[in-house]
């Protein structure tokens, strides 16, 4: 009977070793699947990023002409407004200088309305 028990114990130890091997293989398989899933996800992200970047470049190229045209029209409007302002300045500067000189030079000495006469 002791021999039978030793064989049973040996069989249990071998079964335990086999179970440990199976568990270790399952862990390795799981780790490998996680690595594969990560690399696959990274590939999908890169592909998606590349497609969106390409879409953006196409959109940017299609709208670049309108941006340049808008910039040209804004520049023209700005130049016209500047010319108008300069023309108004040139036509009114003499009047403004004359008004300033009149206010500074022609002083009318008067008592202030809040000043009461001392009696």
TrEMBL record:
> Per the record, a Pfam family?
V-ATPase_G
- Provide the protein name: V-type proton ATPase subunit G
The molecular function terms of the Gene Ontology recorded here are: ATP hydrolysis activity; proton-transporting ATPase activity, rotational mechanism
Q: Name one GO cellular component term.
A: vacuolar proton-transporting V-type ATPase, V1 domain
**Source superkingdom:** Eukaryota
Query: Which PANTHER family does UniProt cross-reference here?
Result: V-TYPE PROTON ATPASE SUBUNIT G (PTHR12713:SF11), VACUOLAR ATP SYNTHASE SUBUNIT G (PTHR12713)
User: What is this protein's function?
Assistant: Subunit of the V1 complex of vacuolar(H+)-ATPase (V-ATPase), a multisubunit enzyme composed of a peripheral complex (V1) that hydrolyzes ATP and a membrane integral complex (V0) that translocates protons. V-ATPase is responsible for acidifying and maintaining the pH of intracellular compartments and in some cell types, is targeted to the plasma membrane, where it is responsible for acidifying the extracellular environment.
Coiled coil ranges (UniProt) are 12-54
The Swiss-Prot or TrEMBL record describes its family as follows: Belongs to the V-ATPase G subunit family.
- List the InterPro entries hit by this protein, alphabetically: V-ATPase_G (IPR005124)
Keyword check for Coiled coil, yes or no. yes
Q: Which UniProt keywords apply?
A: Coiled coil, Hydrogen ion transport, Ion transport, Transport
Assembly, in brief, is:
V-ATPase is a heteromultimeric enzyme made up of two complexes: the ATP-hydrolytic V1 complex and the proton translocation V0 complex.
């Amino acid at each position: 009977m002791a021999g039978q028990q030793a064989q049973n114990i040996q069989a249990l130890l071998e079964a335990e070793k086999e179970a440990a091997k199976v568990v270790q293989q399952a862990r390795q398989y799981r780790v490998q699947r996680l690595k594969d899933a990560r690399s696959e996800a990274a590939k999908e992200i890169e592909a998606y990023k590349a497609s969106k970047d390409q879409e953006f470049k196409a959109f940017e190229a299609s709208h670049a002409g309108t941006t340049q045209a808008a910039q040209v029209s804004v520049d023209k409007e700005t130049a016209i407004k500047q010319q108008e302002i300069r023309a108004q300045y040139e036509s009114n500067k003499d009047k403004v200088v004359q008004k300033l000189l009149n206010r500074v030079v022609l002083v009318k000495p008067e008592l202030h309305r809040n000043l009461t006469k001392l009696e």
